[in-house]
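Standup notes, structure subgroup. Blocker cleared on the flavin-adenine dinucleotide input:
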Amino acid sequence: MASSPDVIVIGAGVLGLCTAAELAARGHAVTVIDPGAPNASSIAAGMIAPALESLLEDVDAERAALLKRARDLWPAFAESHGLKLLREGADWRGPDADAAVARLRALGFDVRANPTGLTTPEDWRIEVAPALKALARTPGLAIVRGQVVRLTGDARRWRVEAGDGRVWFSSTVVLATGAGEPIDGLPDSVAAAVSAITPIRGQLTFVATAAPPRVVRGPGLYAAPCDGGVVIGATMEPGRRDLEPDPAEATRQIAAGLALLDVTGEVGPTRVGIRGATADGLPLAGPSGEPGLHLALAPRRNGWLMGPLVARITADGIEGRPLMADAAALDPLRFA
Ligand SMILES: Cc1cc2nc3c(=O)[nH]c(=O)nc-3n(C[C@H](O)[C@H](O)[C@H](O)COP(=O)(O)OP(=O)(O)OC[C@H]3O[C@@H](n4cnc5c(N)ncnc54)[C@H](O)[C@@H]3O)c2cc1C
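Run returned:
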């Protein structure tokens, strides 16, 4: 069996689906291939958090401004794809609140001190499950279940082969495989870029409780509202790809999270996801250097924040349009 969509996207995480939805909205026939299991995007807390990510990752002003511009693409993206953007802001509770307020202001973020720490209106949120579902339903976008095991091609077209023998052809392929290993047959330069992505394991736990009105973050953890309670997370464990929850870590995390919120609750499932990260912490987005092969990979812990930016850069690259200024920071060839 063979079919020939305009664009094949491999991977249905937030980067693959945002890119596929952007391309479909621009009139391309897009097929997304993914095994359909939970991924980093589907278990994430859905924070779109330029301010507190900038604070907690101690980034410079240039990076903070980039994260803010990435966030600013969300309202139009959400509206055109029917996604509900929750502009709730976020709280930070912890020591040295005055220093945190000063740092955020110096980075250009709006922030208010309060008795337990600070509040910023700059950080937003999205419910990840409905958002992924809505993106997958974009007209012009088809999702097929499958694991791509081989990707080969030349300047004319790519041959995409699934583990069960199904084959697709397209002149344009987007690799959005998260922290996955390189697919067999990839050109050496692209295989090297994928191999250089560091997996970072992250674990969070759902707790049924009265949800706070907005995300609450503290030293080393957060509690993010979600349907019926909060998710408390998340660990950052570089080099690990194992998906089995760690019960001892969950116990520690839940206790700290409930103390941060000063509530009790009924503990639900613990989930694990693997983020992919480049050496500079920014994604790889755009042309790979191989004709017709584009990358939408490795947004570290900001895949939701970065989704519309990566989608726009990748779609512009596919259409041969001039790339926006921020594309340079995400250029897949910047490490070559
Ligand atoms: C616990 C946790 C909490 C997080 N919270 C947030 C948050 O609040 N805000 C935020 O912005 N980010 C958050 N992140 C980070 C964010 O989830 C990731 O940056 C983002 O999900 C990565 O998206 P992705 O599309 O690159 O990868 P993924 O979501 O991993 O998707 C990649 C997909 O590609 C598929 N795939 C791989 N190989 C193949 C193949 N050969 N054939 C077919 N399909 C393939 C995989 O099965 C997977 O479905 C969190 C991450 C974790 C782990």
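Discussed briefly. The two ends are 37 Å apart (CA to CA).
Next: hand off to the docking folks.
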